[in-house]
Amino acid sequence: MKVSARPIEALFRPRSVAVVGASPRAGSAGNNIIQNLLDRRYSGAIYPVNPRYEEICGLMTYKTLADIGKPVDTVFIAVAAEYGLDIMKQAAAIGARAVLLNATGYADAGQAGAAKQAELLAIALEHDIAVCGPNNLGMINVLDGVPLWTAHMSDVKAGSVAIVSQSGSVALALGDDPAGLGLSHIITAGNEAVCGVADYVDYLADDERVRTILLFLETIRDPARLAAAAGRAKHAGKQLFAVKVGRSEQARAAVAAHSGALSGEDVVVDAYFRKHGIERCIDLDDMVQRAALSLKSPPRPGTSAVYLTLSGGQAAAIADCSSDVDLEVSGLPAHLAQSLTDHFHGYAPGNPMDVWGLGWDPARFGKILQQLVAAPEVNPIVLTLDIPASGAVDGPMGVDMARAAAEHAGDKQVIFVGNSAISGIHPDIAGICRENGFPVLLGIAGAMRAIATWSRSGNKKLPTESSAAAEAGRLSKDDLQKALRKQVRFVETAIVSNANEAAVTAEKVGYPVVLKGMAPNALHKTELGLVRVGLGDAGAVRRAYDDLERILKTHATTLGQGTVQLEPMIAGGIEVLVAGRRDPQFGPMVLFGAGGKLVELVADSVLRLGAVTAEEAIEMIGETRVATLLGGYRDGVAFDLDAVRNAIVAVSKLMVEAGPDVNAVEINPLIVMPKGQGAVAVDLVIE
C-alpha cells in the first residue's frame, strides 16, 4: 500500500464523517452524500461543512473543518478540483485519517491536473491519509451502513459480493444488482491517486463476510501489488472475477523478435489473470452470471450435471455451447437411465433430457425430478427453457418446474437457464428462484460459460504468492547465452570466411547443409534472404556463400558487421518456437508455439508469466494446435515432448534471471525429433 493499513479502515468504517461542500440542493453531490448517510442510519457523527448555511438536512453546519472541534475520521471533499488541495491540507491539519474526492480535474485533466494529483499524493503520504479518488463516485460499505456515495442510492440487498470498479457508471450498473447477488461493498477507484484497486482487494481479503470480488478494470496500474492482493484474497477463500477493457501502449514492450508480435497486451493480461487466480470475463453479464454461481458450492468430484429441456433444439444448443467452453455433458449412468424409462414410453433418456414427452405433465416431471434428486451421481440439475418476462412460450411449464424444484430439490443444486438473454425472465419464476436460492442464468452460451467456470472452481490450484513483475536478475546477455546452451541442445555450427572454406567444411559436416548470414541487427534472417537450406553439393554451397556475403556487405550499415555460419541440415522433426520476453508492466514471460517461417502467420502460441514448472510447461504444449503433431498425428510418430518441456522451463527461468538489458530470448526454430531423440535449437536471438 502507498499508505499504512491503519487509515484505509477509516474509508470503510469511519466513526465520523465531514462533508465539505455539503448542500441543501437536492440531487447535488453534497446533498446526496448527507442524505444517503441519513437514510441508511449511519451510526457515526455527520458534520456538514459549508460557510453559506446554518443547517443542512436538519444537521448543524460548520464553516470550516477546523470549526468542528471534534475528531473527524473521514472527510468527503465534494468541491471542484481548484479547491481540493486546500481542503486536503485542512483535513491533514485536523488529523483526518481518510479522504474521498469525487471531482474531475486531476490526472484526468492534462499536465496541470496531473500536478494537482501529485501534490495530493504528497500530502497523503506525509500525513498517512488514505484517499479514495479523485474522479469517482465514492464507496459504499453496505454491510456496515456507510454510504459515502455522491449519487442517489437505491435500496441495496446486503450480501457477500464486493464490487471494485475504475468506472463510476459501471459501478452504478452493477450496484443496481439486477441478479440479486447481495452486495457487501461498492467501491469506485477513480484516478487511484493514493489508494487503488489493489488496496481495496487487499482490505476485502481480510473481511470474512466477503465471498466474491468483482473487478471492472480499464488499466492495471500496479500489477505486482494487485497480484499480491489477489493472492491473499484467494488464500482467504474468495473468488475474483474481472472484466478488463481497453488497450495500453505502455504495456507493450518494444521487442522486435517474433515474441513481441505474439504477446500483445491483451494476451499478457490473460496470462496475468490466469497466474493469479482471477477469472477473466467477457463482459458485465458474463461476470454477474459467474458470480451468481460462485456463491454456491461447486459440484463435488464424481457428479455430473443433468440438463432438462422442453425441446430437442434446446438440447442441441446446450451440446454446442458446452463444447465451446470445454464443458463435458456426460451421459446418464445406465442404471439411472433405465430407471427413468417408464416416464419416456419405454425409451432410456439421454442428457440433455427432453422432458416434454408427448405433452406437458407436471406430475410426471415431479417424479422425474425426484429420481434425479435421489441419484448421488447427479449435481447440479439445470432447467433450460424459454421463460420470457412476458410469461409466454414455456412460462407456465417453467412455473411448474420451479415449484417442483422448490418442493423436491433438497440439498441438490438447481440452476434455471433462460434460453434467451434478451427476453428477460418470467416474474413468477424469478420470485420462486429468489426465495429458494436457485441461480437464474440468461442465454445458453453465457450460462454454459458460467457453469464451466463454476464446475472447475473446486479443482483450481491456489496461485503462488509471488510478484507479477519480478525484479530483473543479473545475468548478462553473454552469461544467459552460455547458460541456455548448457540446458538446451543447439546445432553444431562453424563460421566460414570464404566460399572455398564453406565448401570444404560442408564436405566434413556432410550434405545437405545450411548457410546463414549472421549480423548483430539481423533478427529475422529469413525475411532478409540470409538463410539458405538444403545445400546438397559444393557448387551450391559456394553460390550460397557469395549471395550471403553480398547481402551482408550491402546492408552492413544497418545490420552491422556480418559473418556466414554453416551447420548441418536437421530433418525429420517438427519446428516449434520457445521464447521469453520482458514486459515493462508484467515482467518476464515465456511463449511456446508453432515455429519456423510461419510463426506469426499461424499464430499458434501460448504464454505464461514468470518461471514455469515442468507441469505448467506440459499444459502450455497441450493448449496449442502443434501439440497434435507432436503427439503423432496421422503417421503415428510421437515426438520428444520431454525435450520441449525442458526447453520451455529453461527459457522461462533464465528470462527471470536475466538482467534488465535483456528484453527477449528466442529459439526459433527448435526442431523436435521423434521421441527419445531430443530436440535441436537451430537459431537463437537475444535482444
From TrEMBL:
Keywords: Ligase, Tricarboxylic acid cycle. The keyword Transcription does not apply. It comes from the Bacteria. InterPro entries: ATP_grasp_subdomain_1, CoA-bd, NAD(P)-bd_dom_sf, Succ_CoA_lig_flav_dom, Succinyl-CoA_synth-like. GO terms for molecular function: ATP binding; ligase activity. Residues 11-106 form the CoA-binding domain. One of its GO terms (biological process) is tricarboxylic acid cycle. This is Acetate--CoA ligase family protein. It comes from Rhizobium laguerreae.
